[in-house]
Amino acid sequence: MNASKHIQSLAILLGIFLLMLVLNRLMPLHRDDYLYAMIWGTTTHLSSMSDVLQSLWNHYLQHGGRMEAFFIQDTFLLGNKLWFDIANAAVFALEILLLYFHAIRDIAFGERPALLAAIFFMVWLGLPHFGEVTVWMCGACVYLWTGFFATLFLLPYNLYLAGRFDGTSPLWILPVGLLGLLAGWGVENLAVTSSFIAFLLCGYGWKKKILRPWMVSGLLFSGLGLCLLVLSPGNFVRYQEVHNTGFILHITNQLAGNGEMLLYLLPILLFVLLMRNWLKLTTAKEKGMPFDRQSRSPGKIQLIFLGLLVLLVISFFTSHFVAEAVRIGVIDHLLPAVGITRPRTLFHVNNVVDGFEEMALFWTAVFLLYGIARRALGFTGELRKALGKAVPDKELLHAYPALRFSVFTIAMGFFNNFVMIAAPTFPARATFSSVLMIIIGTAAMMTLPAMNDFYKEKGFTILKTGSAAVCAFIAVTAIAITAALRTENDVRVAYIKAHQGSGRVLVFPPFPIKNRALRHVYIVDFGNSVTKHGISLYYGIKDIQIDPNATLPEA
Question: For a surface tag, which of 69, 128, 168, 508 has the fewest beta carbons within 10 Å of its beta carbon?
Answer without folding.
Answer: 168
